[in-house]
Amino acid sequence: MRLFKLSTLLVAGLLWTGAAQAAEGVVEPKSVDWPHAGFLGTFDRAALQRGFKVYQEVCHGCHAAKYLTFRSLGDLGFNEDEVKAIAASYTVLDGPDDSGEMFERPGRPSDVMPAPFPNPAAARAANGGAYPPDLSLMTKARAEGDNYLFSLLTGYEDPPAGEDVAPGQYYNLYFPGHRIGMPPPLTPDQVSYDDGTSATIDQMSADVTQFLTWLAEPKMEERKQTGIKVMLFLFILSVLLYLYKRKVWSDVH
């Protein structure tokens, strides 16, 4: 009886969730075969560098990444001189100096990438009252975060016949309710990739999604490698314990 009740509650919960998603206009995100997915998945360094370029030239105009330090860009494959050049291209507020005044200076590899706005009030004022979220953990904010983000970036389209979109809003198939305040951020050839890759909307969306996935979990590859080592250790230990058990109990038989 208890099992029947639990099953009933589970089915009811799934039906309620499905109904709630339908009411919100939620569409399942696209399923992408990411190189970092799976137990053995690793990041594509070329895609990460391209994704950083998209973030740097497009997304950073509104969205901060408060956990991104310049020196961590070395993990994307940038060499030391490139990291220093990227950092120096930004102006960082520092201080106070000996006279108690704050001052500006070129960025250093140890600095965090500066936010596009000095405070939340300035960010809201520049974006019609909306606060652009920090992107450091964006792919962790939802289930299937990488698939959702890619779908969102590629999901802008004209509204279906009979559906009105208020001024200042845009129709996006994958955003709950399909109305989003962020204009389509990407247009073809918006950035120029150093490796000659064609900067289509799908390509830029995939690249920046992979970069933000790395930003949300930069130690993912290390975690997976540790997991493999632990599994291998446990397997060898299990074999040794089995052989030891056979040795101990061999005389009994």
Give the helices and strands, then pairings.
Layout: H1 2-24, H2 45-57, H3 80-88, E1 91-94, E2 103-106, H4 120-126, H5 145-153, E3 170-171, E4 179-180, H6 201-216, H7 220-249
Antiparallel strand pairs: 1-2, 3-4
Helix pairs in contact: 2-6, 5-6
Could you characterize what this model shows?
The protein has 253 residues and is mainly α. The longest helix has 30 residues, at 220-249. α2 (45-57) packs across α6 (201-216) and α5 (145-153) runs antiparallel to α6. It has seven helices and four strands. The protein has a domain at 228-253. It has helices at 2-24, 45-57, 80-88, 120-126, 145-153, 201-216, 220-249, and strands spanning 91-94, 103-106, 170-171, 179-180. The strands form two sheets. A two-stranded antiparallel sheet has the order 1-2. It starts with a helix and ends with a helix. The protein is globular, with a radius of gyration of 25 Å.
User: Which overall shape is indicated by the principal axes computed on the Cα atoms?
Assistant: globular
What fraction of the residues are assigned to beta strands by DSSP? Answer: under 5%
Order of helices and strands: HHHEEHHEEHH
Instruction: Give me the count of strands.
Output: 4
The main β sheet shows up as: 2 strands, antiparallel
Please bin the fraction of helical residues: 40-55%
Structural class determined from secondary elements: mainly alpha
Give the strand line-up of the largest sheet: 1-2
Mean pLDDT: 89
Low-confidence stretches: 2-23
As a whole number of angstroms, the C-alpha radius of gyration is: 25 Å
The DSSP helix count reads 7
Q: Between the first and last Cα atoms, what is the distance in angstroms?
A: 46 Å
